[in-house]
Amino acid sequence: MHMNKDKIRVAALAALLLVAAIALGIALQNLFTGESGWTRIEVTPGTGLNCSDEVALMYEIDENQAIAERKQLSLLYTRAAEELYWIFNSRYEPGETEAGSVSEEASGEAEAGSVSEEASGMAEAGSVSEKTPRAAEAGAARNLAPEGNGLAVVNHHINEEVTVDPRLYHAFEIMAEYDLRYLYLAPLYAEHEMLVHSQSDAEAALVDPEISEEAAAYRQGVLSFIQDPEAISLLLLGEQRVKLSVSEAYQKFARENGIDAYLDFYWLKNAFIVDAMSEVFREAGFTRGTVESIDGYVSCLGELGEECTMKLHTREGREVRPVDSVSVGGPVQMVSLRDFPLAETEDSRYYVMESGQIRCPYLDPADGRGKAALPELILYSEEETCARLLLIAVPGYIREELDEDLMRTLAEKGITSSWYGNNGKTSGFPG
Q1: H/E run at residue 269
Q2: Confidence at residue 134, expressed as pLDDT on a 0 to 100 scale
Q3: Cα distance between residue 274 and residue 31, in whole Å
Q4: How far apart are CA 281 and CA 399, in angstroms?
Q5: For the residues of 348-370, what is the DSSP string, one character each?
Q6: What distance in Å separates the CA atoms of residue 132 and residue 259, rounded to the nearest whole number?
Q7: Fewer CB in 10 Å around end: N or C, the chain?
Q8: What distance lies between CA 245 and its chain's CA centroid?
Q9: What gap in Å lies between CA 398 and CA 4, rounded to an integer?
């Protein structure tokens, strides 16, 4: 549909591979900072594609059993990071490689039927969502592993009943409970990815719907379908079976415009991953740590020796500065929503223009525009998961001005909110 996108895709790939190389090191400076006993647990050597570059496990290792505990944690973390990567990956099924062959390294260890993949040929294919027609239509032969039960399977088998991983089904249930259509914004998320990987404002203008008439028209075309439940709906059939219903008209539009995914959690994805990974460690009895994502989702697993702390920022143009901090002890989930990239590893979600304007990933299903009511909003709760915190609060944040009445209502439900107000003071409602 859009012109001059091949150059943009190449630049996007190069930028994302550079970002992947520096991984979590910079972004985690904002999250949990512990004393000398705290360690970041690594995935085991030789691990295939996984989400450890976006979701980290920080843990206070017991000095009396350091070797054994570190090994147990690494094995659990590795397995969860691999499985959850594939479960929430929207475009590539487990077992698929860039060359079209099925990986022979699928692990039989996963109890839920998930598979562990080698990274053969996948670094490029799994990193960037390119707007190209489906492989079959483009004439490229791809073999899809029959074990696949993640989000990509649903996107590849529209109007068919498929069985998905129980963790993905649970995520679908939560999304349906709040009746928000963020999940259906996948085509616009793909456009946003190309925008934020632009190398200049001139390049970005080609795909920025706030500037390009062509991009704006495409956005309206997508919205006409995703806002219509008759055009696209995800049906939950029970027993982990789902059916993605897509109308013939939307399928035709997708073919004409190279849409290769109808569903994508995008900025919500890591919240669900943090929640699912936290359960793995809690169920195994490991509670002296935190699971943290680069985009501001933190789960403190249990009673810790110190508080979980998250810095609160404000922004003026391109200048971002910390103004306060939020600290809380005990098992708790924390979420930071912000309209700016905190570190280089978040360049895949934000585009900062030379003027200081920022394009953020929080697209409003009502009009497809990125919106953020404040530079940063921090929420935490002892009862709600990270994903639920997001879905409860975002209707009050993805808008022009913060819905303070909603924040007040959330406080009555035990959810604390904090932000830096225009009066130069920290505001919020204690839960």
Answers
A1: helix 269-283
A2: 28
A3: 14
A4: 36
A5: TT-EE-TTS-EE-S-B-TTT--B
A6: 7
A7: N
A8: 23
A9: 31
Q: Residue 10 is part of which domain span?
A: 5-23+44-267
> How far apart are alpha carbons 371 and 153 in whole angstroms?
30
- What lies within 8 Å, CB to CB, of 79 at 6+ separation is 107, 109, 110, 116
| Mean pLDDT confidence for 172-201 | 96
Q: What pLDDT does 342 receive?
A: 79
Residues 205 and 332 reside in one and the same domain: no
Residues, the chain = 431
In percent, how much of the chain has pLDDT > 90? 68
**Degrees to nearest 5, angle at CA 227 with 185 and 364:** 50
In the chain, % of residues over pLDDT 70: 77
d(CA 116, CA 303): 32
Does residue 36 form part of some domain?
no
CB atoms within 10 A of CB 220: 12
Tally of domains within the chain: 2
Q: 252 and 364 in one domain?
A: no
Q: What is the pLDDT of residue 338?
A: 95
Q: pLDDT digit string (tens) for 293-336?
A: 999 999 999 877 778 889 999 998 888 999 999 998 889 999 99
Sign of the CA dihedral with 126 first, then 132, 137, and 139 last:
negative
Residue 34 belongs to a domain: no
By the 10 Å C-beta count (0-12 exposed, 13-18 middle, 19+ buried), 155 is classed as buried
Radius of gyration (Cα) for the chain, nearest Å?
21
Residue 15 CB-density burial (10 A; 0-12 exposed, 13-18 middle, 19+ buried): middle
What span, in angstroms and rounded, lies between the C-alpha atoms of 135 and 79? Answer: 29
Is residue 298 within 8 A of residue 275, CB to CB? The reply is no
Residues 403 and 261 in one domain: no
Q: Which residue has the higher pLDDT, 19 or 292?
A: 292
The pLDDT of residue 277 is above 80: yes
